[in-house]
Amino acid sequence: MNHGTALLWKRRALSSLSATRRGLPKEKMSENGIMSRAKVLTIDTMNPTVKKVEYAVRGPIVQRAVELERELSEGMKKPFAEVIKANIGDAHAMGQQPITFFRQVLALCSYPELLSDSTFPEDAKSRACRILQSCGGNSMGSYSASQGIDSVRQDVARYIERRDGGVACDPDNIYLTTGASDGIVTMLKLLVCGEGTTRTGVMIPIPQYPLYSAALAELGAVQINYFLNEEKCWSLDITELQRAVNEARQYCNPRALCIINPGNPTGQVQSRQCIEDVIRFAAKERLFLMADEVYQDNVYAEGCQFHSFKKVLFEMGPEYAETVELASFHSTSKCYMGECGFRGGYMEIINMDDEVKDQLTKLLSVRLCPPVPGQALMDLVVNPPQPGEPSYGSFIKERTATLSALAEKAKLTEQVLNTVQGISCNPVQGAMYSFPRITIPEKAVKEATETGQQPDMFYCMKMLEETGICLVPGSGFGQKDGTYHFRMTILPPTDKLKILLNKVKEFHQRFTQQYS
Amino acid sequence: MNHGTALLWKRRALSSLSATRRGLPKEKMSENGIMSRAKVLTIDTMNPTVKKVEYAVRGPIVQRAVELERELSEGMKKPFAEVIKANIGDAHAMGQQPITFFRQVLALCSYPELLSDSTFPEDAKSRACRILQSCGGNSMGSYSASQGIDSVRQDVARYIERRDGGVACDPDNIYLTTGASDGIVTMLKLLVCGEGTTRTGVMIPIPQYPLYSAALAELGAVQINYFLNEEKCWSLDITELQRAVNEARQYCNPRALCIINPGNPTGQVQSRQCIEDVIRFAAKERLFLMADEVYQDNVYAEGCQFHSFKKVLFEMGPEYAETVELASFHSTSKCYMGECGFRGGYMEIINMDDEVKDQLTKLLSVRLCPPVPGQALMDLVVNPPQPGEPSYGSFIKERTATLSALAEKAKLTEQVLNTVQGISCNPVQGAMYSFPRITIPEKAVKEATETGQQPDMFYCMKMLEETGICLVPGSGFGQKDGTYHFRMTILPPTDKLKILLNKVKEFHQRFTQQYS
C-alpha cells in the first residue's frame, strides 16, 4: 500500500465510520482494491410495489427467445432455423403490411415538402394538411394539448357516433393516449385510494391481459379475479361477477370492473345481452366500468358482432346512460392497422364527475402530450378514405385483405389445435390469439414443480428450445387451478402459421409421450 | 307517472334500500326525474396523491390563454391581437423549423416507397434503411424491445462516448424513453419506498422544473428543497445541499439528488468544479444522482460549457466512477431540434445494481415500448450527417442558425429585462428560459392575497389579460419566500421577442404605477 492509497484508506475509514454512526451500511473493499460503497438502490431498498409487477408477455420466455435468436445468428446449431415469436400481438413484425394511405399521410406530415409531390393522392394531402393545421407551427414536432389535438378528438367523436349508430359523443370526453395501456393505467391511477379493507379493489377477468395485474400491483390496488367460463367459450357469467364482488367486499372496496371485449387472451366476443347484464351489475354494485375495446374490428366468427359498451349503455335508457361511469379504450395497435410502434390510442369517458375530469386533465398535463405521430395515426384510423376519394378503393382492399386473412387464420388455428389429443381450443371469435387448454402429464407437472417452474412455463420453455416457437404460458394470464394453457397469436402469414401449428402438434405429442 | 315509470320507481326504491343496507350513499332524484346515483369516482373518493399533483407550466394561466385565443377567434375585442405563449419550451410552435434531414429520414421510415425517390439524399436513405432494418418486419409499426431498438441504443452509446471525450458507454446502460419525463418518472418510481421517517426523500432544486414536484407528489415521496443562489447567477452551493439533507434526515430518508443542468427554469450552466463537488457530496451522503441534461446543446454564455455528470464522474477516478449511481436524461424535445411532439428520449444508467436493472427492464416492458418514431428521431440526433455526406452542409447550417438565434435571444432577453426598474434578470447562460425576479408592490401583494392568489400569479394573469402574453408565475417552480419571478421562454422569433419584451416592460411599469 503506497502513501496515496493509505491516505485514501484513512478517508474511507472515516467516512465509513460516519456512515455506521448514521446506521447506514458500511462500505466494503472489492477485489480490485476499490472501495465499493453499498449501493443506494438495491433489490432490498427499491420500491416494493414495482417488485410485485409481472408481465408475462415480455417475460423470461421472451428473453430466452431473444438469446436463442442471437445464438442462431452466431452460427450455433439448433433444432430449428428461426425463432417464431407468437407471443405478442405485433402484426407488422409478423409480416402484416401497413395501410398505404396511413403511411402516405404520415410521410406528408413528417416532411411537408412532399405536399407538392404529385405522386401522392389528393385525399392523403388534404388529411395531412388538416392534421398539420391543428399542430402548433404546423409541425408534428410541437407539443399538442395534453388531452390531444382538438381536431383529432373531434374526428374520434364522429367515428364513435357512426360506430354506435348515432349515439352522441362529445369530443370533450375524448382523451388521446400513448397506446391503450397508458389510458388504462391512468384511469386505474385515479381510482386507487384507501387502506386495508377500504383499499380500492378492481375486478379483472381471469384469464386477463397482464397489463391489468401489473398496473394494479404497481398501484398497490387489490386485484379481484372473476373467472371466464372456458366451457362456454370463455363467456362471462354474472353469477361469477357476483361471487367475486361479494367475497371481495370482505377485504377491500371494489370500485371498478374491467372488461376486455373482444377478449385477450381468450378471443371471445361478448353478446349484447351479456353487456347489458354487466352494465346492470356495475350500476347495482356501484362499479366504475372500464371497457378495453382495442380489438373492436377483430371479430371473425359468424353470428358474432362487436357491441360497444357505450352504445349498449345508451340504449338502456337514461337510468343507466346518465349514471353509469364508463371509460372505453381504443388503440392504433390492433385491428387491421396493427400500428403498435406509433403508440396511438384514445379513451372515451362517460359520466365522469367534473372535478375528477379536471384532475385527470391536470394529471395528463404533467407528461405534456401523447406522441403526435400516434395522434395523427389515430386520426386516420377514425377518419379513413371515404367513398369517392382517390384512396378509398385501395384502402378497402388492403383492410379487407388483412381482416379476411386474420379470420382465416383464426379458423385454421382452432381447427388444427383441436386435432391434437390433449389440446382443446375454443373458437377464436375475435382479437388475435388462441388460448387453448393443454393437458400436461403428471410426470411433467412434477418435474416442473421440482425445478420451481409453473408446469405451463416448463412446457412452453421446452417447446421454445425444441422448435423455436415462442408462446406465453397461461399462468402469465391467470387460469383456474390445475388447468394449463398457452397464448399463441394468429398473426404469422398463413403458410408459416400452418408450419407453426404442425410443429406445436408434433411437440405436444412428443412431450406427452416423453412424460407418460 | 305511468305504469312503466312506477315499476321503474319500485325497482329503484328497492335498489336504493339495498344500497343503504350496505352503507353506500343513497341514490337521489335529479330534476329530470332520472335517478342520479352517487358517482363512484368523485373528488373525495379519488386517489389523494393525484390531487396533490401540480404542474404550473400547463396550469390555470394556460387554460385562460386558450380561452382568450378562442374569444379572439370569435371576434371578441381584446387589447391585443394575438396570444403569445411564452410559457412552454415548444420551439416549433414558436416558428422554429425542423431539421430537414431529420424529417426526410422520418418520411422515408414512415413510407418506405420513398426510398426509390431520387429527390431524397443518399445519407437520409441509408439512415432510414438502417433504422427500418432494426424494426420488426422493417416497419416502424412494430413494437421495439422495451429498452428501445438495439441499433439506436448503440448509436446513443457512441454519441455519449464522443461527447464525453472517449469515456466508455455500454449500450446496455441506455434505455430509450417517451421524452425525458418518462425516464425521470420511472427512475423516481424505482427509488420510492418506506413509510413515515423512512420514506424516500428526493432532493430537487428550487426553482425546479415542476415535473419533479408533480412526480414526487404522485409517488408520495418526500420533496427535499435545496435553493439555488439567485445572487450568484442561480449557482448551486454545496453548503445549501448539506443544510437541506441534514434537515431532511430528521423526517425522511434522502436517497436521490436531482440536478437540472443547464437549468430549467433558471438557465444557469454548472461549472466543472461544481459538478465534481456535487458528485462528492452524493457519494458522501449516499444519494442516487439524477442528472437532467436535456439542454446539453443549449449553452450560450461565453466561458460556459456543458459538462456531463457522466464525464466528470469518470474523470474523478474509480473511487467515484465505480460506485456513484447515476441516471442521466436526454430528449429530442430541446436543443437545436425542438422535436417535442415525437416524445423521444433516452436515459443512461451508471452503476445500477444488476437486480434493480432487471426490475427496471421488467417495469418498462409493461408499457411495451417507447414510440418508435421518437426512437428513430433520437437516433438521428445522436447520429446526424457526417462530414462528406450529402446532407452535412445543410444540417450544420440549420443547426448553427437555430443555436445562434437562441444565443442572440438569450442575450436580448437579459438585456431588455434588465432595463426595467423592478425587474432583475440573471444571464441566460443556457436552456431556453429567462427567470427574472420581479418587484411586486405591497398593494398588489395585498390584493392578490385577498383574492386567494399567489402575487406572481396575480401579476401574470393581469399581464395575460392586458397584453396576451402567457408566462408562468415563479410560484409554479418554487422560489424563496417573499421573492417573485416569472418564467418566459426565449423561443419567439427575434422580431416578435423584441415586441414581447417591450410589452412586458410597459406592463410592468403600468402595473407598478397602478399599485404604488
From TrEMBL, chains A, B:
<comment type="pathway">
    <text>Amino-acid degradation; L-alanine degradation via transaminase pathway; pyruvate from L-alanine: step 1/1.</text>
</comment>
<comment type="similarity">
    <text>Belongs to the class-I pyridoxal-phosphate-dependent aminotransferase family. Alanine aminotransferase subfamily.</text>
</comment>
<dbReference type="InterPro" id="IPR015422">
    <property type="entry name" value="PyrdxlP-dep_Trfase_small"/>
</dbReference>
<comment type="subunit">
    <text>Homodimer.</text>
</comment>
<keyword id="KW-0032">Aminotransferase</keyword>
<keyword id="KW-0663">Pyridoxal phosphate</keyword>
<keyword id="KW-0808">Transferase</keyword>
<dbReference type="InterPro" id="IPR004839">
    <property type="entry name" value="Aminotransferase_I/II_large"/>
</dbReference>
<dbReference type="GO" id="GO:0004021">
    <property type="term" value="F:L-alanine:2-oxoglutarate aminotransferase activity"/>
</dbReference>
<dbReference type="InterPro" id="IPR045088">
    <property type="entry name" value="ALAT1/2-like"/>
</dbReference>
<feature type="domain" description="Aminotransferase class I/classII large">
    <location>
        <begin position="138"/>
        <end position="503"/>
    </location>
</feature>
<dbReference type="GO" id="GO:0042853">
    <property type="term" value="P:L-alanine catabolic process"/>
</dbReference>
<dbReference type="Pfam" id="PF00155">
    <property type="entry name" value="Aminotran_1_2"/>
</dbReference>
<dbReference type="GO" id="GO:0030170">
    <property type="term" value="F:pyridoxal phosphate binding"/>
</dbReference>
<protein>
    <recommendedName>
        <fullName>alanine transaminase</fullName>
        <ecNumber>2.6.1.2</ecNumber>
    </recommendedName>
</protein>
<dbReference type="InterPro" id="IPR015424">
    <property type="entry name" value="PyrdxlP-dep_Trfase"/>
</dbReference>
<dbReference type="InterPro" id="IPR015421">
    <property type="entry name" value="PyrdxlP-dep_Trfase_major"/>
</dbReference>
